[in-house]
């Protein structure tokens, strides 16, 4: 038996007990005649004491050779500590060691295994297994496990069945590039790793598994943006014989359950807003509604004077920033520079201070009088002491820019409190999205999404206006889940592929299996998928998902610990029928 107890459980009630512990040496304090060692495992830290007058000489001497992170086993007696540490559960006791075994010596770790480590990101990634010994990472993994368990519990109780779907599949176009795997047995042919189990979960519905879920890895070979992982985990779900309302209710229930069990927070019914409303009000389809600063459209009260910039704009839109009326000229200039950075791309910004006495002072006083500015305040909801910032230009672009400013200011003003949770649904997404470069329409969600029946007629005439039965769950400014009601008949699916620019042959070659299945009694169905990594990070109050993934990739998609991706040798290439031209 390696251990009778773990390093986090002994306390005053165990005094005089003979115990065996095993773990890692966190640190030792050698006072010559007395040597204290902190022994650590996943559960905590227990202090060991080696005392020249009470400990066997060989054990005492051996203890002096222990280095940080040595793996040891000790036997000893639980005794009361003289200097108690109230901060840890084991702080009242220590172990007077009688036997010591070094199970494995260790090199000095390249960074300290402490909550606040001296190791930078890169070195911690390279030695991730050491990083996992640190509380912040370890606790994040335990937290993730807890969330996953609650998901499984909640869904299983509702009769959802977790079904595994294959990882070696055929390409499904969901907007990203596939990772592909060459087939040794089928020369010149490739599997693709799933971007999501979308088609399989739909086939499970045809198979009669009317409530499916899976906590599943998905793979997308996208250009990496900050905090994106090429492989990530979804809570993937699908239900048959449901309408949008059913799906929203079930998964709102799941999220409410998680907030309650994990955070102890009860939330009311989630607000629902349409995509159009979200874009108009927040400039964003995943609005953070923990704070206001809703957009006020000012065209009517900004284009009746001779200010050419506003008069030329498609949209003039502003936000009221609470308590920002006292910003200095320097701070305002700083913000103007901020919105002019290429990442945001505004060409300038107008501001109007709302003075405490109810008057206004703006950067465009030459053009607008107090009455005009009073209208701006009314429309943006500005109060005395606030500042109104106004952007103008093409509608969509300007909304995106103002959204960026809104989020930035909220962050600066401390309005994005990670312990406040404000979930909502965004519904009625457009079915199609125009790709500016190719001039072609793409499915905004994916090609299996059902158009709203009442908008079907618009498909021929104004495809951009067709709304889908598609929805996103948004939490604190992040899309944490998204899905749709699916097309479940062959004719509509065929039509959809046609609108998306597939020839009949292409559609058949890629999705013939799905359309065939639709002919054998496909029930109406729909579902959604949550991004587990992001969900866990938000629930854990963190910005980055990396700490919640045991072995994440870095920003270039590399695993720097195992050094992947890597070359493979010629023999392997040959077997896979792959020729790489010499460079
Ligand atoms: N497969 C979709 C996705 O990965 C989710 C869904 O429609 O259920 O975004």
From TrEMBL:
This protein's UniProt keywords: Aminoacyl-tRNA synthetase, ATP-binding, Cytoplasm, Ligase, Nucleotide-binding, Protein biosynthesis
Molecular function in Gene Ontology: aspartate-tRNA ligase activity; ATP binding; nucleic acid binding
GO biological process: aspartyl-tRNA aminoacylation
A Pfam family annotated for this UniProt entry: GAD
Residues the entry annotates as binding ATP: 220-222, 229, 479, 531-534
Segments for region (Aspartate): 198-201
Keyword presence, Ion transport: no
Known EC number: 6.1.1.12
InterPro entries cross-referenced by the UniProt entry: Aa-tRNA-synt_II (IPR004364), aa-tRNA-synth_II (IPR006195), aa-tRNA-synth_II/BPL/LPL (IPR045864), Asp-tRNA-ligase_1 (IPR004524), Asp-tRNA-ligase_1_N (IPR047089), Asp/Asn-tRNA-synth_IIb (IPR002312), AspRS_core (IPR047090), GAD-like_sf (IPR004115)
Entry's localization field: Cytoplasm
Aminoacyl-transfer RNA synthetases class-II family profile domain span: 144-552
Reaction(s) the record says it catalyses: tRNA(Asp) + L-aspartate + ATP = L-aspartyl-tRNA(Asp) + AMP + diphosphate
Listed GO CC annotations: cytoplasm
Residues given in the record as L-aspartate binding sites: 174, 220, 445, 486
Principal localisation: cytoplasm
Role of this protein: Catalyzes the attachment of L-aspartate to tRNA(Asp) in a two-step reaction: L-aspartate is first activated by ATP to form Asp-AMP and then transferred to the acceptor end of tRNA(Asp).
Family the UniProt entry places it in: Belongs to the class-II aminoacyl-tRNA synthetase family. Type 1 subfamily.
Subunit comment: Homodimer.
Name of the protein in question: Aspartate--tRNA ligase
Species this chain originates from: Flavobacterium aquidurense
Lineage summary: Bacteria, Pseudomonadati, Bacteroidota, Flavobacteriia, Flavobacteriales
